[in-house]
Amino acid sequence: ARLYNSKEGGWPPDQGTGSLPPQLSQYVRGNPFGVKVPIGGKFDWNNGWGTFTCSIGIEDFSKDLNIWREVDKVLDDGVLTTGMVVQYLDSLLLKVE
Questions:
Q1: FRET partner for 51 with CA separation of 20 to 30 A, picked from 14, 36, 89, 94?
Q2: pLDDT confidence of 43, banded at 50, 70, 90?
Q3: What's the pLDDT at 19?
């Protein structure tokens, strides 16, 4: 996504849950957005939604905050209100920008 942004000067538009933005298909093998993630649910590409300019969310998955915190510990700082991984409404977001 960052390579696309550096070449195109922007981010692909928002997509529905489970849909890889077509603009990113040349940068990714397969469609990781179309398969269930280990904690349940699917990835969701967000542009202009939530607390970040651009993010990848996980939707339709476990609402167990202990699982969310574990994901945050592995990817970030373990605190759902700060850093690159945050809780926003009923979603878990990974900051792209």
A1: 36
A2: very high
A3: 95
pLDDT digits (tens, 9 = 90+) for 66-93: 999 999 999 999 999 999 999 988 889 9
For residue 39 the two structure tokens come to 């904690």
The model carries a pTM of: 0.87
**Helix or strand holding residue 71 (H, E):** helix 65-75
Rounded to 5°, angle at Cα 81 from 76 and 87: 85
Number of H helices, E strands in the chain: 2, 4
Determine how β-strand 85-88 pairs with β-strand 91-95.
Answer: antiparallel
Using CB atoms within 10 Å of the CB of residue 43, give its burial: 0 to 12 exposed, 13 to 18 middle, 19+ buried: buried
Query: Do residues 49 and 38 touch, judged by C-beta distance below 8 A?
Result: no
